[in-house]
Amino acid sequence: MASIQRIVSPLTNAVSYRAQVRVKGRPAQSETFPNRKEAQQWAQSIETAIREGRHFPHAAARRTSFDALAKDYTETVLAEFEQPNRPFQAAFRA
Length: 94
Known about the structure:
The chain has helices at residues 36-52, 58-63, 66-80, 88-91; strands spanning 2-8, 15-21, 29-33. The chain is an alpha+beta fold. The chain is elongated.
C-alpha cells in the first residue's frame, strides 16, 4: 500500500511530496516529487510492478554468489594490473 506525505521545506517553504510503497517482506521504496500527481503515478506504477513481480532488482544480487563476483573481479579488474615480472602475484592466484 502506498502513502503520500506532504513535505514543506523549513528554509524555502517549498512544497514537495514523498511517496512510499511498503510491501510485507520487502524493503520500502520511496521517492520525492514536486507535485502530488507525479507521486501518485509513481506509487501506482511501483505497486503494479510489485504485484506482477518485476520490480525487485535486488533479486539478481541474491542469485549472484560471492565466488562468482570474486572470479569476475580477478578476471576483469586485476587483469589490467598484471605485470609479468612480479613473482609474488603467482602466490595469490591459488
